[in-house]
Design a protein that fits this description.
The complex is a heterodimer.
Chain A lengths: L1 E5 L3 H25 L12 H26 L18 H14 L5 E2 L7 H25 L7 H47 L3 H7 L1 E5 L4
Antiparallel strand pairs in A: 1-3
Helix pairs in contact in A: 1-2, 2-4, 4-5
Chain B lengths: L13 H9 L4 H14 L7 H10 L3 E6 L5 H7 L6 H8 L1 E5 L7 H14 L5 E5 L2 E2 L8 E2 L2 E2 H10 L3 E5 H6 L12 E2 L1 H4 L5 E4 L6 H14 L12 H4 L10 H6 L9 H4 L18 H4 L8 H4 L34 H25 L4 E2 L9
Parallel strand pairs in B: 1-2, 1-3, 3-7, 7-9
Antiparallel strand pairs in B: 4-8, 5-6
Helix pairs in contact in B: 2-3, 3-10
The chains are: A mainly alpha, B alpha/beta.
Chain lengths: 217, 372
């Protein structure tokens, strides 16, 4: 028998979709800012101006979303908790991690039962959150250069001195490509688990519900 | 009604002007110099008489030393037009030692430097050009038998203030570029904590140097600086934010190659690798060579010569981003990124195909109820 469980609470789902929206917009506009692939036919246009405006607006949205999700890690249920991102901390988590990794590498056939994140995904998400924070910090450090002595320059401008503003730009650019790689991986893994686990992996992020085989628990 | 147009600068006292004229300096040139320098320092017009007074009655002793340098900053300074270099050197400053300018040579010159340092201990302005090599026990640069390391430390410690001119003395510059064979460092890292102001640029803009000296004469201290020790009046804004081609940047009009139609139209040089967006300097407003021009005005992108990390992080000059360490010179971050994304897609595609055909998978407890 399948048990219907409410796993992904609404703040988790909202933050997830805000992240999707802002990341797509940030990658597209950010790529344009780094390499303007359209040329305006005349000076009355404002292509780069709009691209930068969108990039900075979605940067603020993304920041709010990531910060909200991090706060929810301390408020929400066990699946959204910060503890869920460190499956290594428990014995069952470690066993399930190895099992999952073996499934992915075709060396094992058995899928571990995971109500929330599977342990390999959870570990990856921890890394992704680190990259999110890096993108936010490096992005606002570079952004702050337009107003020396202003808010962003005041709190993050030291990074431009410590790391060098050109290295920050290169890293900000490089991490975007890592996130593009993650995007591909994430959609693929979601599809794979939806097919193989048959527990509502894909629909769960829309509805919040997943189907758990009660015998697994 | 009083408007901004009614603001008139208070007059420079007549006796100052007369004393200046008695020295053979044209009264009009002197007023122009005081006004331009006050403006460069971003001071209100009411400061013009104060500046005039400071410039007229103080002749600070100056020691100008060069270490690993090309003398480009000396050259830039000699071409300063406000006032002409001759006036500045002979009348406003008392240059005690400057390798490029002085007649003395050899031991005589070194003796003059030593005497000036002893005589004006704690009073002289030290101007340093060039980086200081610390490798080989300081052996890569010696002057009169003393290493640049010892010479510089002694001079900085006994100076009232030190002005680093050019990127080499400010940040290490070209001698400190990878692999930095002589372990060249800036004055700031050689003598941490000293009263130092950095005027990077390759070369320094002579107007900024003059303004810094005048600030010191007027207020008895060095101007307010940013995190990198650069005066805010000259390095407080990004080139990109004051650029005359900025309108084309925002519009989305870019030169794609040197000599193309867009470049001839004066469009933005961003895609030709202009480093204006990462460089802080007042080039667009103050310009070079008597305010004649500056690189972007002349049609070449900024190369970020006044930023720390020049040259390493500002090259390749015709690319936006530095080259990715460990990859070939032709690999840009985007090529590597697209390669990474494509490899990810291919890898997961293969994994997906393999997963479709795998048999015998099971959940921890997998019993799917088959419908008839």
């Amino acid at each position: 028998m399948n048990e219907i469980r409410y796993v992904w609470q609404w703040p988790v789902r909202i933050c997830h979709w805000l992240n999707v929206l802002s990341m797509i917009m940030l990658a597209l506009t950010g790529f344009f800012i780094g390499r303007p692939f359209m040329t305006a036919p005349d000076t009355s246009m404002y292509i780069m101006g709009w691209m930068r405006m969108l990039h900075f607006s979605f940067a603020y949205l993304f920041t709010v979303s990531v910060v909200a999700r991090i706060i929810w890690m301390f408020i929400g249920n066990e699946h959204s908790s910060w503890k869920a991102f460190f499956p290594w901390l428990t014995k069952e988590g470690r066993v399930a991690f190895v099992q999952m990794l073996r499934y992915y590498t075709f060396t094992g056939k058995k899928l571990p039962c995971s109500v929330g994140h599977n342990p390999v995904a959870a570990t990856a998400y921890f890394g992704i959150f680190v990259l999110f924070v890096f993108q936010i910090v490096s992005g606002f450090a570079i952004y702050g250069q337009f107003a020396p002595g202003g808010f962003w320059d005041g709190i993050l401008g030291g990074l431009n001195v410590l790391v060098g503003n050109q290295w920050l730009r290169l890293l900000h650019h490089g991490v975007m490509w890592l996130l593009v790689g993650f995007f591909i991986n994430h959609i693929y893994s979601g599809w794979l688990m939806d097919v193989k686990e048959r527990n509502g992996t894909m629909s769960g992020i829309f509805s919040g519900y997943r189907f758990i085989k009660s015998k697994d628990l | 009604m009083k408007t901004d147009l009614d603001i008139v600068s208070p007059p420079i006292p007549e006796e100052i002007l007369q004393r200046v004229e008695a020295k053979g300096i044209n009264r009009r040139d002197f007023i122009k110099f005081c006004t331009a320098t006050t403006a460069a320092l971003a001071l209100p017009v009411s400061f013009i008489p104060t500046v005039a007074q400071a410039v007229e009655d103080k002749r600070p002793p100056v020691i100008w030393v060069e270490y690993q340098s090309c003398s480009g900053d000396s050259e830039a300074f000699l071409r300063a037009n406000q006032p002409t270099a001759g006036e500045l050197i002979l009348d406003l400053l008392s240059i005690e030692y400057a390798e490029v300018l002085m007649a003395a040579a050899g031991h005589q010159a070194e003796e003059a430097k030593h005497q000036a340092m002893e005589k004006y201990k704690g009073q002289y302005i030290l101007i340093v050009e060039g980086s200081i090599p610390t490798g080989a026990g300081g052996g890569y640069c010696t002057i009169g038998g003393h290493s640049a390391v010892d010479d510089c430390k002694k001079l900085v410690q006994n100076a009232a203030a030190t002005i680093c001119v050019g990127s080499c003395s400010s940040f290490g510059g070209i001698p400190a570029a990878a692999p930095n064979p002589t372990s060249a460092v800036s004055v700031g890292s050689l003598v941490p904590g000293a009263a130092i102001v950095n005027l990077p640029g390759c070369p320094v803009n002579a107007d900024n140097l003059t303004a810094t000296i005048v600030h010191f004469l007027t207020f008895g201290k060095l101007p307010a600086v940013d995190r990198l020790g650069r005066p805010k009046f000259a390095y407080g804004k990004r080139i990109h934010d004051n650029c005359e081609r900025r309108g084309h940047f925002d519009a989305g009009q870019y030169a794609e190659a040197f000599g193309d139609e867009a470049q001839r139209q004066g469009h933005c040089l961003y895609k030709l690798g202009c480093k204006g967006p990462e460089t802080f300097h007042n080039c667009p407003t103050i310009r070079y060579n008597e305010g004649t021009s500056w690189p972007v005005m002349a049609g070449h992108g900024c190369i970020g010569c006044s930023e720390p990390g020049f040259w390493d992080t500002m090259s390749p000059f015709y690319r936006r981003l530095p080259k990715v360490p460990g990859f070939g010179i032709e690999d840009t971050a985007d090529k590597i990124g697209i390669g990474l994304a494509a490899a990810t897609a291919v890898a997961f595609g293969i994994h997906g195909v393999a997963s479709c055909f795998r048999k015998g998978d099971s959940m921890a407890e997998d019993k799917t109820v088959k419908e008839d």
